[in-house]
Amino acid sequence: MTRPFNFSPGPSTLPLSVLGKIRDAIPDWQGLGYTVMEASHRSQAFIDLVEKVEQQWRELLAIPDDYHVLFMPGGATAQFAAVPMNLLRSKTKAAYVNTGYWSKKAIDEAKLYADVDVIATAMNQEPYCVPELDVKALNKDFSYLHLTSNSSIYGMQFDAFPECNVPLVADMSSDILSRELDISQFGLIYAGAQKNAGIAGLTVVIVRKELVDQPRDKTPSVLCYDQQAKKQSLLNTPDTFAFFVMNLVLDWIKEQGGVAAIDVLNQRKAGYIYDVIDSSNFYINPVEKTSRSLINIPFRLPTDELTALFLDEATQAGLLNLKGHRVLGGIRASLYNAMPEEGAQALAEFMKSFVQKNA
Ligand code: PMP
Fold this sequence. Notes:
Distance between the termini: 35 Å
Radius of gyration: 21 Å
Strand order of the largest sheet: 2-10-9-8-5-3-4
Mean pLDDT: 96
Helix content: 25-40%
Bound molecules: 4'-deoxy-4'-aminopyridoxal-5'-phosphate
Shape: globular
């Protein structure tokens, strides 16, 4: 079967083979006579699934044993609060990097619980650029440093992470599993599942075990890392279907050769689009080259009319959901792991022929 290419920023495209396996498991999952949506989260079959998914994460990202892998409700947005609630510990101060929309939301939420010090900001002017971080200034008064590894809206991505004296916390909602990581560099990583790890409903939290022992008073139990760890993330009824899809997506990543192979592919996919942008005077990407995201690529056309025409013709050509986020306008191509290479190539070809017709 051929499908249109869906460049949605999230929830986003899933591999066709995963969709086939989802279909095959309805109405009978594992010969049980019912689906995973109808299974008790206390059933052995479901507990086995959760354990398997945790092992998959550990294997794909080489997560050391001194880290918990938790699956939590509430999306990345719930983590904006959970992080300060759990990681401030005896301190009051937390450091944040502002790279725009999502990091700003994390900052605003953290201010409800912490004295937030924004140590660097990226958004002053175009071209947008991942800011230089003066992490030496972070002394032991700070409980942690928070950054957003890939700014899904502005299309900026950290290509390396700072070594610092305080635990590093990263919102990796849009680039988890897209490249290899040294987990030991981080105190905590969180990411909603709906871009690179399945569907909405679960947020993965990878956290160094020693950091979770002092949640703030009155932390809700579902947002408490320590309680979730003690209950293997089954403190309450989770999104069982999202676990099922996550298992299939993580299997699919392994079949592709794991995260290292996915990374190589992602570089090629992004390369097709940036090559067209850079070889034209027509498309403008607002990000400094060294800060460019491999995952979300925003770009502008010379006029609003041309942007509307581009979106219209792209849709007709089977290239869907390319409209930019309202804060930037223009176009945004999201090239998550499951976007096939052919999708990026098709978009690049479309962009070239659009220039020829309209420049
Ligand atoms: N952080 C980043 C980097 C995101 O891209 C998003 C969602 N697009 C969020 C946080 C918010 O995620 P959620 O809707 O799952 O709360």
